[in-house]
Specification:
The chain is an alpha/beta fold. It has 19 helices and 20 strands. Helix content is 38%, strand content 19%.
């Protein structure tokens, strides 16, 4: 086992409790002072199918999963069959049922039926794992008790007892199977959040007042998290009859003055494309979360990919301005979601926050967020508002003075047709040209507030790895592995992919001897976008589109083919 970090993988069928087990173990690790990165892999089924909940933990920051498994908790034989080859050969351990017929090298066979009711095998396994890892029993038992307390006190007692039984049995394991964690300093107060939860909290911190949605994996939990806090925070959350209704409801709320959003994924966003154009034409600020999953069509609805970049960038008919934010960490999910609302209002344009299933479901340990609003330059608008009020007044920035209907004595007009400054329909050629130019000038407002890419490494590296979105952690770890063996590798990561400002990154691309773009799609979408906007050709790419997230091992192995 690597003394710096380790990976626990829990596998079984949907309905066997592996998410409850994994969530409790992850919390115990965070509260003990360890850093974590969780990867959830699950099939599109209500019950059955092979699912995993993998926790990579360490004494320092952990940014991505790894291929090797140090502790495999197999809740069924299929898990042991599928993953025993990945269990670290030198010192990995497999936890099996004593009734299992599977032959695994370093294994611990747990007599579940002797320790507690068979309905609580997941909690027994949690106790055994906690004992092997050297976690404190009272900490783990307390987490389980609080988890089930909401259901009823009896359930909390029974599940805590199952954890204790597993823990006491696990303490008797042969010393050769010891996988105790490396020591860690005193634990800081940290939160355990996944990407979708952080997006929801970022929206709340930004003052969101309305969210309409239609459920679609992996975006749904963004809205479910909002709904949990809706009453306290004064947010209206509405499940619409479909995605078309959802985005139009969000536009209506934004027109009425509330900070408004919607969240969806591939096929759902396809239905929203017409309303994206409506937002642009009516100049209504709205935030749209697009949680990517593999397509086309239904594709792999519970897997991950980064294949919707070009779709979101060009969604909607006509030409208009927009921004695409692509957070690479849970912290960035919070920060960029909060920023998205301010940016949408500053430009009176649609702003997209793009994530994917991996980041959406990946729990991380994070420090409490800074709730001070970051500075964001808003374009100047003419003051005071002229009478009669012109909803689409032509301005140097392209952003008109914004009034809310019924909040003043002015008539506020909105129209999806081409319109004059007053908002009334026009087909006059010169005015049509002026309005198109006005909407496109908003790109200058967005460009002035672009989140610059993050660079790490020497000024003129041998190799530069370029990434965007959720691949950030795996790319950083791949660079660290290569640097550790004497190579000179730098990274350039984009948390915003549109608009692009070449002066922020072109010099970095040109200074590197070799550049490789790492992205989760088959057609090198971001590499092509970079070439289109900067003229720089990234000739090599490491792409992944099998539905699984990047790991540093995956990247390093394929770099050996590329270079």
């Amino acid at each position: 086992m690597d003394p710096r970090n380790f990976q626990v993988t829990i596998g079984g069928q949907a309905g066997q409790g592996l998410v409850t087990l994994g969530g409790a173990l992850a919390r115990a690790l965070v509260r003990s002072g360890y850093h974590i990165a969780v990867t959830q892999s699950y099939m599109s089924r209500v019950r059955g199918g092979h699912n995993t909940f993998a926790i990579r933990a360490g004494t320092s920051y952990v940014g991505a999963p790894q291929e090797a498994i140090d502790l495999l908790i197999a809740l069924n034989d299929e898990t042991a069959e599928l993953h025993r080859a990945a269990v670290a050969q030198a010192d990995g351990v497999v936890i099996l049922s004593s009734a299992s017929a599977i032959v695994a090298g370093r294994s611990l066979r747990v007599p579940y039926k002797e320790l507690a009711d068979s309905r609580h095998e997941d909690m027994i396994a949690l106790g055994v794992a906690a004992a092997l890892l050297g976690l404190d029993l009272s900490l783990v038992s307390g987490i389980v008790s609080s988890l089930f307390q909401a259901k009823d006190a009896a359930s909390a007692r029974v599940n805590s007892a199952a954890v204790t039984a597993g823990y006491e049995w696990g303490k008797q394991a042969p010393p050769a199977l010891n996988v105790s964690l490396p020591p860690v300093r005193a634990a800081d107060m940290r939160l355990m959040l996944n990407g979708n939860e952080a997006l929801a909290l970022g929206a709340l911190a930004a003052g969101v007042r309305f969210c309409a949605f239609y459920p679609m994996s992996p975006s749904t939990s963004v809205v479910l998290e909002l709904a949990k806090h809706a009453d306290v925070m004064g947010v209206v959350v509405e499940q619409a009859e479909d995605e078309i209704a959802a985005i139009n409801m969000a536009l209506g709320a934004a027109y009425a003055g509330g900070r408004s959003m919607t969240a969806t994924s591939g096929g759902g966003f396809a239905l929203m494309a017409e309303a994206v154009s409506l937002a642009a034409a009516t100049e209504i600020p709205v935030v749209i979360v697009v949680a990517q999953r593999p397509g086309p069509a239904t594709g792999l609805p519970t897997r991950t990919e980064q294949s919707d970049l070009e779709f979101v960038l060009h969604a909607g008919h006509g030409e208009f301005s927009r921004a695409l934010l692509t957070p690479g960490t849970v912290e960035a999910c919070f920060e960029l979601m909060r920023r998205a609302f301010t940016l949408a209002e500053a430009s009176q344009s649609p702003v997209f926050v793009m994530t994917d299933q991996f980041l959406a479901d990946s729990y991380r340990d994070v420090l409490p967020f800074d709730l001070i609003e970051p500075p964001l330059r808003s374009p100047p608008v003419p003051e005071p508002v002229q009478d009669p009020y012109r909803s689409y007044a032509l301005t140097a920035s392209g952003v008109s003075p914004r009034l809310v209907p019924c909040a003043s004595g002015h008539l506020v007009v909105a129209d999806s047709h081409e319109h004059a400054e007053s908002g009334h329909i026009t087909e006059e050629p010169a005015l049509r040209t002026q309005m198109v130019d006005k909407r496109l000038r908003k790109l200058d407002v967005l460009s002035a507030n672009v989140v610059p890419p993050e660079y790490a490494g020497s000024d003129a590296p041998e190799l530069l790895l370029v990434s965007w979105g959720s691949s950030k952690g795996a790319v950083a770890e791949a660079a660290a592995l290569l640097n550790a063996v004497g190579q000179d590798v730098a990274t350039l990561h984009f948390d915003q992919v549109w608009p692009l400002v070449p002066s922020q990154f072109l010099g970095r691309l040109q200074a590197a001897r070799h550049t490789v773009c790492v992205e989760g799609n088959a057609t090198r979408q971001f590499a092509r976008l970079l070439r289109r906007e900067s003229g720089f050709l990234i000739g090599r790419s490491v792409c992944r589109y099998d539905g699984r997230p990047f790991t540093s091992e995956y990247i390093v192995e394929r770099l050996s083919y590329e270079l």
